[in-house]
Amino acid sequence: MEPTEIKRAYLGTDAYMTESARANYNLANSELAKFTGFDSTINAAYMTAYLASIVAAETVVADSAISDQQVQTTENVLSQMELARAKYNEVKYFVQKAFPNSAATQGEFGLNDYMDARRSESKMIQFLDEMSKACVKYQTQLVAAGYNAPAIATIQTIRTDLLNKNTTQEVFKKQRPKLTEDRIKILNAVYDRLTQVNAAAQIIYMTDYAKQRQFIYDISRDNDLQEYEGSVGAGTVKTIATLAVSEGTVFTFKNTGTVPLVFCLSSTENLEGIQIPIGGGATISKTAADLNPNAGFLLVKNTDAANAGSYQITLDD
Description:
By secondary structure, this protein is of the alpha+beta class. Among the domains are: 91-173, no CATH class; 226-316, Jelly Rolls. 54% of the residues lie in helices and 15% in strands. It is built from 10 helices and 8 strands. It has helices at 14-30, 32-38, 44-62, 65-98, 103-108, 114-117, 121-137, 139-144, 149-204, 209-214; strands at 225-232, 237-242, 250-255, 261-266, 275-278, 283-287, 297-302, 309-316. The strands form 2 sheets. The protein has a 4-stranded antiparallel beta sheet with strand order 1-8-3-6, with no helix packed on it. β4 (261-266) and β5 form a beta hairpin. α1 (14-30) packs across α9, α3 packs across α9 and α4 (65-98) packs antiparallel against α9 (149-204).
């Protein structure tokens, strides 16, 4: 049996839903006897659980730690890659000094393979291991050329740290869809209780129109704030939405992934005019007037050729 994707059960923003649920809880709890008299399961215990689910959901809405953690794991890997590149240049200096006329020996240290390895964490891990073994093999000659044994030993230390940090990053990338799914489950649990209370209220207050209106989830009240989030494939341009905005509409672009993205408000489904590049984890706000107020296509481009990106965009009128 194929697993199914867990999606949000409601329309509107997460913040609006949780805000509505808290108001809904207070309204129902103030007249709980009426609800319990109609449906015995909507009792004090039910309301306690309802409030706990709201608090959990509000924490989810406010928590940006997931994307921040992913950015941190990437920064750790990039920092370690810089150390690896610096170590290579250090070794290269002494290898060329010790073996100036032997291309074959220089090749044992990886001098002819470095350009390929410097762009890939996995290849750099293997490269450092091979370079370390070559340095141990020719340690006598390297020390005679001015290098030292402790510096040679740190090659394996750098490799181990890179291996660990790269593994942490890759594991986090694999875990992130599950973390997102867990967050959606928490949000949906609140909406389920909100819906249940509202359905009961429509019968309890059957002859009281004003009361019935208090127990309706009305997303039209969320019109001043629009939110879009999603992913964009490697090396692709994606049309996020077709919009009609005023010059004062504020766009807040957040790159929730790690690869660079470019955002654009365009009159066609191609990037044109003013483009907003944003690095991983960064947030930039622009008014429609700063972009292209007469355009209606909101686009995002992933400039990375190998990895997918993710984003979150909020429009505030």
